[in-house]
Structure formats: C-alpha cells, structure tokens
Amino acid sequence: MTGSWETERLLLRDLGPESAAAVRDYGLRTRDFHAPWDPIRAADYWELPIVAERLRAQQEDSRAGRALCLCVSHRDDPERIIGVANLRNIIRGALLSAHLGYGLAPDATGRGYMTEAVKEAVRIAFFDLGLHRVEINIMPRNVRSLAVAERAGFVREGFSPRYLRINGAWEDHVRLARVNEAMV
What is the CATH number of the domain that holds 104? Predict the structure, then answer.
C-alpha cells in the first residue's frame, strides 16, 4: 500500500525516489541526533543516488505488503520532512504483525508530533493494513522514545538482551506492543 495520510497537524507519506533530496536533507539534519539510536551507516548512506534507490526499494516493499515507510511533515510545510514512522517486517497469516520504528528531527521534539505520528501509524497498521499487532523495540536509556510509545498506548511486554546492533554495540531493548482490539 502506498499513499498519504493526514492528522490534525501532520502529513504522513510513502515517498518515492523523486523525493530523495528532501529525505537526504532530513537524514543529514538528524544523523548526529539519531546516532546513539541507529546502526552504523555506510559512508555513502546519504548520497542522493543511494537515497533514491532506498526510496524505490521501500515503495516496492510497500506495494508487496512487506513494509510501509512514512515520512512525516507539517501539513502546512509538506516539503520539509521532520520525522519518520516505519512499519517493517509485516507478517501476514496467523500473526498479522509489524515492527514500528520512528524518529524525529531535534528541532521538532517536545511538541507531541511523534506521538501524533505514531498513533496514526498504528491506526494505518490496524485499519488500512488489517494487522492485529504492532511491536516496538526501544533501548532502555532512550526515555523520550519510550515515553512516546507509552503515550501512544503501547504496553511493555518484555526485555530482549543484546537485541540489535546499534552504533556498533549489541544493545538491550524493551519490547512494547499494541494489539488491535477491534479484531476479536
């Protein structure tokens, strides 16, 4: 599924290669801010052709039902990306689940934008994609991201030691999830 969704203040869009410059700008503006929470990236990760190819691949994953990667902008400034909310590892069948990852530009924090975007991503997962469960994994020291997840209705389910390789080290993560209560 590809498309565009609006909330009260935000626009969430599945962008293609034609938006590579805007996505690159977001990535370069936020890479130092996100470095403690991200994997180590290749030196060419933010080069324009690489970004365009990544966006093309993400749209293909979206059309195939494997992922939905959304760029977040203000509704009144749609060309400037302030965040991302990515539904990945979509699994159908008996599980009907996805993993959600998100990030926000440092100049957009503290205004509730990420919580608003996460709530919309969950609504899309449940009602547009027909999923039953959305899971988030967050490092325990990332208190701001944990607060966003909890404000968006996620419940702590467990702890995963050395779960992901982040910034060069295997990091523990708190596992949180939401279940689609409309699916009985």
Answer: 3.40.630.30
